Amino acid sequence: MGSGYVGRRCEGRGAAGSPCGRGARWGQATLASMGGSESSHGGRRVTFGLDEREQVRVLQGIRLTEDVVNRMKESSQGKRDYQRSPRASNGTAPSSLAVAGRPRPTGIRPPMASDSAAEQELYRRYEQEQALVQEELIRLAKREREAASEAQERNSINEERQRTAQLAVELQGREAELRRQEAFYKEQLARIEKKNAEIYKLTSEQYQEAATKAEERIKRRNTDPVCANLQSEILKCYRENKREALKCSELAKEYQRCVNAAQKVTKASLLCYLALLSCFAWCFLLRNVFEICGIC
């Protein structure tokens, strides 16, 4: 544990031209804090003044005696000698355990019984100040750790927010693209449905027109029943000979021959009629196809 004079700052110049001569104003000095190692975090600012011989005599409102100043000088000189000490006599550097075990110079010795009450009071205040410095250092270290953890947490939260915002933007872009595609396909589907409806309507109208024209060109013919006289004779024979149906076999054969002959004639007429209808239908369908292709 050590404390020593680190630096000073004064303003103005003396009569002799020195940086801090007589008449210099009050400045600031930094005392190293107590601790195992000299840390820059432990320094604190104190005020000092110069007396007539340009020596520091006032520290935080307390005037130092000559004895205290001499002891502080001796402790500072001993500390510099200790830091500049060469290697051990055997040529090897002292071990870390030996260095750690040796007590460091404190810079200020405890007051002896022969010291004045002012020096004892000064040392008591010095110890109180060192205790306050240690407490303040502990609080500062704790605050720094808390601030670091809070900063890290804020950074993680900010990163998460940025990722969330980026994902939201990407999602909005995808939704907009899906809506655009949906509108496009709906428009295409509506156009196709409209075109199909027009084609169906046109085809139906043309089919009805073709059917009407075919009916007008091909007249219906009223025909008498085929082999009507033989049909009545067969019915009469079966009624008279219910238990002897073989007696009507000759009439049945003759009726079958008559029907076959009539079917041949009717079939030829029917084929001609169907061929004519098919021809008209194909003509109108082909014309419809040509018109559809012209629309497309």
TrEMBL record:
Residues 86-95 have a biased composition (Polar residues). It comes from the Eukaryota. GO terms for cellular component: MICOS complex. It is found in: Mitochondrion inner membrane. The keyword Disulfide bond applies. InterPro entries: MIC19/MIC25, MIC25. Residues 70-84 have a biased composition (Basic and acidic residues). One of its GO terms (biological process) is cristae formation. Keywords: Coiled coil, Disulfide bond, Lipoprotein, Membrane, Mitochondrion, Mitochondrion inner membrane, Myristate. Residues 123-224 form a coiled coil. It is a lipid-anchor. Residues 1-24, 70-120 are annotated as: Disordered. Its main location: mitochondrion. Belongs to the MICOS complex subunit Mic19 family. Metazoan Mic25 subfamily. Component of the MICOS complex, a large protein complex of the mitochondrial inner membrane that plays crucial roles in the maintenance of crista junctions, inner membrane architecture, and formation of contact sites to the outer membrane. This is Coiled-coil-helix-coiled-coil-helix domain containing 6. It comes from Corvus moneduloides. The gene is CHCHD6.
